[in-house]
Amino acid sequence: MTERSEKKLKTYSMLQTGRRLPSNYELVSSRLHYHYPHNFELSNENPVSKWYYQYRESSPLQAHDWEAFADPRSTTYRGYNELQNDKETVVDGLLREIDESNYDDELAAEWVTFLHRWYGAWRFPVHGLEMISAYVGQMAPVSRITNAGAFQSADEMRRIQRIAYRSAQLNARRGGCEPGEQKAFWEDGEPFQAVRELIERALIAYDWGEAFTVLNLVIKPHLDRLLNEELAGVLAATNGDTMLREIHFSLNEDALWHREWSRELARVAIADTPVNADRFAAWVDEWRPRAVAAVESYVSVFEQAPVRVDANGVFARITAAAEEDVKAALATPVG
Amino acid sequence: MALQRDDWLDVARKVDWEFRYVDEREVYPEVVSGSPWLSHESWKNWEEAYRNTYREYVQNQLVKDDSVFAVRDALGKAKITERLDPAWVQLAKFHNGAIALGEYAACLGELRMARFGRDGAWRTMANLGALDEIRHTQIPLMIGQDLLKFDSRFDWTHKAYHTNEWAMIAARHLFDDMFTAANALDTAIQLTFVFETGFTNLQFIAMAAMADGADDHVFEKMLASIQTDESRHAQQGHPVLRTLIENGGKEYGQYLLDKMWWRSWRIFLALTGTSMDYLTPVHARRQSFKEFMEEWINDQFLKNLEEFGLEKPWFWDQFVEELDHAHHSFQLGLYTYRQTLWFDEPVPSPEERAWLEEKYPGWTETYGSIWDNIEKMWDERGELGTLPYSLPSLCNLCQLPTAFRGPGKNTACTLEHNGRKYLFCSEPCRWIFQQQPERFAEHQSVIDRIFKGDCPTDIYAVLDWMGVEQHGKDLHNGEHPWRQKRAAVSA
Ligand SMILES: [Fe+2]
Ligand SMILES: [Fe+2]
């Protein structure tokens, strides 16, 4: 029988790259999917295997080495909880400060009504973002992308829960803005309908590459800005609700990371296979008008706030910034 | 006054709405969401018993990780091969290989439920479950890396699922069927109700108690901590099964239960049964595998079934009968085919044999005599006399060797389907196949692949094809102290 070689490994053999040892992030995040490509141990006829082979293996978005992607934040499980626990501690502090002061009593009645109508219901579209992110994660060809999708999905849960908490907190103090009633504004409120259409259609964009592009290169750069920076940011502060701005400043840190890793993934995909730039661009062209329409329809509410903010200005800021994002993400790498 | 969790959490979990621009059936296609397809109306009362907020989650998990890593930092760098019983080190390699990346596959199962689960509360829970499974992958990968410098076969912590090693193909087949390539409803029942609620206690809690006895506190802490997550996200199964049964799906629920009970039993006897009764030092064995099964699995789980008006699986009598012998037979297979494993296998010592006879009366007569024979071959012909001449036959369902024969009884059976002949280790494996032949029929076992010419036939070439570069061997290299003592006495 063959003698056992006693060479000692410094790291897992599949993670060896030259002489450099993998970082802790690389060690725990790399090459964890055994089923890509085409490797489920069931008949190819199994409907879920087929689903993967169609929407993952046969996606127009392909690369030779997806493993070249690395999360720029190097998020590990432990690192994620550390980071998010710190952020949540900050938000806890803000919410406690609201409780312990007469902050809510001083908000204008019209602003409370405005939030009831146009803020609390955001937990529905954000849940759509959470679902799509979970989809991107489960369909990704490599584990580093799956992890980013899973953490992003959890970040959206965080945002939903903070919106829900804040809505309930306000209602407990001021009354008349029962969060349980807010679904009606999402389902029937005119300004929300284009947002709703965008989310509903994006939920059924099942091609893996398309789902990633639509969610992270098109929808989120628009809607995250609309919610975190404009509605709960500029408009809230203009109406004296600086605490809401602070809360969403923290939530927006998550959104900035979503943009950052997505930009990196797009960069890697294009550097690996240049024609991917065209594929991204085709999806962006197809979906951007819907995202723009969603922003355009929703920003009308900015004119309904007690202290108004010019809706056209908001629209212009968001669409210009989102366009810059896509441009940066799809820029041909230099060199 | 700060709000109580229940004052606001419902509005954050119950976030379904009526679709206007697309159809509910497009958002939740039956092939990935599950059958029977029911509208959200049927799912809207989905509730889990113990709730958790995101805020609580990140805080609690941080504390849990801190306590695992404190033990790792204190003990993990110590030289495991000097500190621990050598058979136990084999157990750790076996466990890490079989579990670490399987947990990651479970992350996909959780993400599937986080997207295609049919109620917002379910999806919310599954989202946290997905994070849990990332944790269950990352902790063993870190701990396994610490051990590489003492034993390079801890490489299998990461590598195992990427190989064609036969036991790993069996693990992939099971997990793909259970969750990696299963729809959300099937995943909830198969993974969270049967596997996690029913069985994982055994691999994580019972094994943690043994790790404590074996002085492997890093392993102990890791297992115990992982199980606290499992028991939280395992809650998803109950409300899914309840909804299914309320909507006329009782028969299907019974099928999923029977199927996954049998498949879980196969993997647990192969991994946990042999680990507990053959690789754990005798002084660390808290109970026998059979005792754990009876106390922790059977009694507990049967209570769960009553709650739903479900029956015991139809093969219950065979299952109970197998508790006495299946893993002992399987252990002989592991020993015989040890060259195909990434860890070593021991011959039970006289002390271990006495323990086995006490726990399984009749063991000596049935199995002791076979081990006697193996020892005799070592005496007479050395290692070569103890190695197999032929390939084992593998079950076309569970992919394990058809080596579960009881005393004087062979349970293997066959089936002709669409012109192909299939072999099964047992009636229940055949029954599972027959219920959904389209799901399983195309699959090729390692033996099928060898006969088809997809992999080599020369034994060493087969081992390379399986990725087994450092072959498993007899734990004592054939130098069993009790045999040497006997030889000295008779000389
Ligand atoms: Fe797990
Ligand atoms: Fe789990």
TrEMBL record, chain B:
Q: Which UniProt keywords apply?
A: Monooxygenase, Oxidoreductase
Source organism, top-level taxon: Bacteria
EC number(s) from the headed UniProt entry: 1.14.13.227
Q: Does the keyword Protein biosynthesis apply?
A: no
Its EC top class is oxidoreductase
| Catalytic function, reaction form | propane + NADH + O2 + H(+) = propan-2-ol + NAD(+) + H2O
Does the keyword section mention Methyltransferase? Answer: no
Q: What InterPro entries has UniProt attached to this entry?
A: Ferritin-like_SF, Phenol_Hydrox, RNR-like, YHS_dom
**Domain YHS: start-end pairs:** 414-443
Q: What is this protein called?
A: propane 2-monooxygenase
